[in-house]
Structures are given as C-alpha cells and as structure tokens.
Specification:
5-stranded mixed beta sheet, Heat Shock Protein 90, alpha+beta, 10-stranded mixed beta sheet, Rossmann fold, Ribosomal Protein S5, domain 2
Amino acid sequence: MPAHAHATLATPETHKFDAEVDKIFHLVIHALYEKKDIFLRELISNASDACDKLRYKAISKPELIADNPHFRITLQADAEAKTLTISDNGTGMTKQELVDNLGTIARSGTQNFIKRMTGDSKKDAQLIGQFGVGFYSSFMVANNVRVISRAAGQKKTHIWESEGKNSYTVREAEEIRPERGTTIILEMQDDALEFLDRYRLEHIVQTYSNHIGFDIFLANKDGTEIKLNEGTALWQKPKSEIAPEQYTEFYRAISHLTQDEPWLTLHTKAEGQISYTSLLFVPSAKPFNLYHPDRLTEVKLYIKRVFIADNALEIIPRWLRFLRGVVDAEDLPLNISRETIQNNRTVFKIRQSLIKKVLAELGKKSESEPENYEKFWANFGAVIKEGLCDQFERRDDVLEICRFRSTASGDKTTSLKDYAVRMKPEQKAIYFITGEADSIASSPQLEGFKKRGIEVLLLTDSVDQFWVNVLHSYKEIDLKSVTQTDGTAFAEKPEQGDAAEQAAPETAEPAHIGAHNAGELLVFILNTLGDAAVRDVRTTRILTESPVCLSVPEGGMDIRLERFMYENKQLAKISPKILQVNPEHPIILKMADDLAAGADKAKLADTAHLLFAIANVAAGEPIPDIAGFTRRMNGLLGG
C-alpha cells in the first residue's frame, strides 16, 4: 500500500458478492476485453464521474469542496510494490455505497442480461461489453483490488477489498487519507507489470482518456507530477480538430460499449435564442436492456461544463433512448433542480432542437445509405416508432424515417413515401395488418390484396398496435387496417349477401353462391353462433383461398390492440367480430347447397362452429369453446 494510504484497520466484515456479480466475474477476468489496457480507461472514467457528481453537489453545498476546490485524478505506479494507484477527489463513497456499488450490479435489466449469457466465452464477452461493468475490469490485471473511499462531508473512511473471487471485505479505517474521494490500489499480476511503466500509462491516457475534463496527473516518487491529458471536454473542441478515432474512444468511454463503433456521430453547436453544444452517438449494436421498463436515456446533461444529470430524460425523449452522449447547455442556471428541469422553457427548446437535428440526420442517412439504414432500423426501429405515439409537432417527421416490411418489399423494408408511389391508380388508402412476425404474411385477410397486387404493410412490433390508432393518415392518404375492410377497397362491385341486406345475384361468377342461398346460409351461421360471438356474417372478396376470416367494423378497434388491452385489464370484454365468408370456397358452397337441400342442421351447425374456430386461430385469437371444438373435431375425424 502506498505511503499516503497507511491506516490502522478495524476488523473487516466479509460479504458475498451478489449472484449476478459472481456469474460475471469469470468472464470479466478472462474474456471481457481483447486489450487489457481498457481497465485503466474504465477506472479513470469512474473517477471523472465522481468528480462530476461532487461538482454538481457543491453548487448547493459549497462547503463540500471549500478545502480543495480543484478536481483532479492522479495515477501512481510503484514498481517495487507492484501496485498501481488511481485516486480522485470526487464525491467518494460511504460504507453502504461501497457495498451497493461494488458488491452488486443494481442496473436495469440485470436479470435479462444474465439470462442471455450462453456459456460461450466469445459471445458472452461481446454481451458483457455492452453491459458496461467497468470497475470489475480491474481484476483482469490485479490479484487484489483495494478501494479506499471517504464521502465528501463525511468523517469516516472505509476500505473495500477483494481478490475477485466470490467475496469481499469492508472495514473502517482510522486516520486515513484521502480527506475526500476514492483511491483504488491494484496489486498487479506478474503478466500485467507493463502497466507500471510511465510511458505505457501516458500512452493509454492520451489514447483513451484525453477527453476527460479533469486534469489527470502521473505522480512520481520524488513528489513531481506529469500532466497526461489536455483536460478539455471533447465536445467543446471544434469538429475540425477532432479525429474520427477520438470520437470513437469518447463514445466508448461514456457508453461503456467497449467493443462497439458509433453508427452515427452528431456533433452540434447551437447559438442564438438558445445556446448549447451536443455530442450524440447512435450505437451500432443494440443495448441488451433497450426495452427494459426502467430503461432511461443515457445522455448526460451539463450546464456550462458542469455535470448535472446522467439520464437527461427531459432533454432526450424516451423514444430516442438508444442515443449516447452529452448535451452542454449555456442558458440554464447552475443551481437548477432536477425537479424543475422538466418544466423549464429553455430545456423544452433544446429538446425540440435536438429532436429536429436527429431526425434530419437519420433522414439523410436513410436516403444516402439505405442498406446501412436497414441495419439501424433492425436495431432501433421499434423504439423510434414509439415517437409516433407522442403528442408533439414532429410526429410526421418521425413517420418519414420509419421503415416497414410489406407484401411487396421482400427481405427489405419500405418507406411510406415509396409505398405511396407504388399505389394503384384506384387505390384510396395505405393498407396494413398487425400480427406476429412468424404468421402475419400468411394471414387470410391478405389473400384478396395479394391476388389484386395491392401492397399491405406487415406491422409486427408491439408498438404498431398503438401508433396506427393515433395516426390515421399519411399526406392525406388514409391508413387502413385490412381487418376493417370488406373488399370494396378492390374497386369492384359492392359485396353481395350481407346477413342484414340481401342483394341481387352476381351472374359474372358461376362458382359464386346465389344471392338467395348466400343470404340463407349467412343468416343460419349468424343464428348458430349467436350475436354474443359474432356481430355479423358477410360474404367478402378479401378471401381467395380460405373459407372464413374475422374483421371489425369500419372505425372499430384493431383485433390485436383489443386483445392487448383486454389482457392488460383495460377492457372489460372482447367485442364480437364480423365473420367474413368466402362465397366461392368449396366448404361454403357445399354448406349452402346442403342447407337448401334440407340437410342435417346439427352437422351444419358443427361446421359453422369449426369455421368460426378456424377464423379465430387465423386472427391470433383463442378458440372460444375448446371443449366444443375438440368434440366437433373428433366427430369430423371419426366420419
């Protein structure tokens, strides 16, 4: 232990690591990073965060830093003792914070992360790199890690210590420095002694941590110090002075996505009515906890270079939560409270400006690099579409950058702009269907559209159930679910044979049920199923191969959305649907003939119930009467 850290030690308390930490340790130590020097970047990044947090606390409590207002990070290498020390005079940690922060991984989605671990070291190393457990990277190079910390404004200092196995100790230290902040002492492994070399440390800091906004010093044994970094926040430098690799290293440092490249970098300096600088990144890889309920944005908010908040939810909306980076505002008071940020007019203007810039850049990327944009959309498209449900004026701009699978797009996606160009001259709406990805393309509701070459959007994300009920048109073209149309969309004659209103027979289609027989059959099916099960029974041109399908009335709630709301107890019951019947299908033709010939109505009723069950299954709905369905199927199969 270096001289500045001598102490009289109290009896240590031994704690077991949380199960999550225990499972992660082996990977961290043996397979996390290809380059072990990353550990130093992670520890310096943590030290910088600690200084940031104390600088913010000191705005309201200046006494916390009165004795030492100048923040710094210090490295000290001791070749004889084989130790590397990283110190900061930031916020420090109490005993409980040492336990909470270093003995557990209290992050959103931890359980999901653990479940995704496969046992394959290479794959899991990539996954754990996304998780960002920076402190634990210390154990790649150290046999023992000692953390000495004293929280700003507190009198007690505590020591956390572990060999990176399944436990750690915590003890109180007497008469120990630092007066505030954290000192980490690494007892280096024999194959990691290169990290005690001055020039090696200098190179690592200048490569990975030159952007850190606090001075980083290397302390020599003779008491002299060498400054290792520029100490200037990267986002404050002109873009012309920043190399691509500097952006990449900054991105990796703030995001902890150590094996990822930024897919898009947006460095903006706004001046005028509002003044701010932003440096935002779109990841190439999808974070593992992107859809976790507690997932917040990961954009840091600064005011005049002073750190304010980690999760700038007021600056970046949730539907852009995949963004990483910083926003540094000039026009906000340093003493603004986190509670009042959300109601601040300047914050609102910055938010709107950032949304506009991000959407504009994504729009350019989608036009100039469509194949590359496909990769982005596969990762973050479902999140972007959450913005379509937000009540804000740029909703149409969000829609422009959205991409969708369709019956005409094959393996790629399409924009609504391109869909509109492909619309048939007589087509009045943009059609869509919502459902599960593995079954939606074979839905019976698509049969008539496919036969007539009318393109249908295939919406398979959960959010699709909601935004289609918020946005009803695109550039004055109606958006319409195929489950809400009766076939008149095909610009042909209106359908015949509504159970409530029978029309004249169609002579142009010889295999079609006659109007009289159709009307009789539809009324029979409606009476058999009952109005509690079906709202109406109608013939339709939507179907070409299947005998039946379900639909909802014009303006009704989409089938998938209604089921979601019912299962989440937002609806008391499921409403009866319309059963649409294919008047040219052999089963329907035979039923009509048998009914006209006075056949056994009990068997016809069984057939009607089976057809209704088939329609429910095709729509993703549960079979209403499982016992009855089983009995009827047994009877059918038994002859």
